[in-house]
Design goal:
This protein has one domain: TIM Barrel (Alpha-Beta Barrel). The relative contact order is 0.14. It has an eight-stranded mixed β-barrel with strand order 1-2-4-5-6-7-8-9, surrounded by seven helices. Helix 8 links the parallel strand 6 and strand 7. It is α/β, with parallel strands linked by helices.
């Protein structure tokens, strides 16, 4: 998980360090889950794990708020391990709850930081966490930023091959935010490409920009990769990425990250993401063109 930069921001509040230490044991550190929606039929083939800290006085804190504190306290590796361990455990819970049904729970995606990727013990750690949990192939996916893959280039192909050999899916996320190239899609063993939301909004301001995104999608599809639009926050953007042939999307216009109880309902087909959707005030944003497209 990426540690947000504190440059230019206030220093971390070190008075929270003891509470963060305690959070690993008292249940206040937890995962929320955000659905990844198939743009053609509205199904949920994947979900992303997002760490949250339920502080008793400050409310729910996201990584941008508590990871600088973890960094100052030397707890980043411990948080990273906790996130991966809890995600593997939750994925196993989904599959155990689905036993005896025709339901295949969504793939659970976990973001892996460059520090974890560069660790010589990373594959062994994944093996240890998955040992005995009997997860089917593809139940867990690990996503790495374009920057992380570029900075760790010499070790990356073999490591990703090792993950896929263990039944773990692999994705590049935040695609378009670094100076990597499309050659990455040829050189690395990947299953999914996640286009960064800020990149999409900055690029798709005119027909020329949309042509660039369409070309990326086409190249990814030629390599049999699934393409996900990340950070989709309006119905208009959802409609545009669907028109440009993106396969899936994730973002607040569909569903925010939800607590584990709600995520299990979605994972087991007992709830839809739009149950948690809160339509924005603007009437034109209340349109749901991706649903209309699926129905057609």
């Amino acid at each position: 998980m990426t540690v947000p930069s504190a440059a230019g921001g206030p220093p971390p509040d070190l008075t929270l360090v003891p509470a963060l230490y305690a959070a690993f044991d008292d249940g206040s550190l937890r995962l929320h889950f955000q659905p990844e929606v198939d743009l053609r039929n509205g199904s949920v083939p994947g979900m992303e794990a997002h760490p949250r800290w339920q502080h008793p006085e400050r409310g729910v804190l996201g990584p941008a708020e508590f990871m600088p504190i973890a960094a100052a306290a030397g707890l980043v590796h411990q948080v990273d391990q906790w996130v991966l361990r809890m995600a593997v455990t939750e994925a196993r819970t989904w599959h155990r709850m689905a036993v005896g049904t025709a339901i295949r729970p969504p793939r659970l995606w976990v973001n892996i930081d460059v520090r974890q990727l560069a660790s010589p013990a990373f594959l062994a750690e994944v093996d240890r966490l998955m040992a005995g949990r009997l997860l089917p192939a593809g139940a867990l996916g690990l996503e790495f930023s374009e920057r992380a893959l570029g900075m760790s280039a010499p070790i990356v192909p073999r490591l990703l091959d090792g993950l896929r050999a263990r039944g773990v899916a692999v994705a590049v996320e935040s695609f378009g935010t670094w100076f990597g190239s499309l050659a990455m899609l040829d050189l690395l063993p990947l299953d999914l490409v996640k286009l960064d939301g800020l990149y999409l909004r900055a690029t798709m301001r005119d027909l020329e920009g949309e042509a660039v995104v369409a070309a990326i999608v086409r190249i990814a599809h030629q390599r049999r990769l699934t393409v996900v639009a990340d950070g989709v926050d309006t119905a208009q953007l959802a409609a545009r990425v669907l028109a440009l042939d993106c396969d899936r999307a994730i973002g607040p216009v569909f569903c925010p990250p939800v607590p584990v109880e709600d995520a299990r309902l979605i994972a087991l087909g007992r709830g839809r993401p739009d149950r948690w959707y809160r339509p924005p005030a603007r009437a034109d944003d209340r349109l749901r063109p991706w649903v209309q497209a699926a129905a057609g």
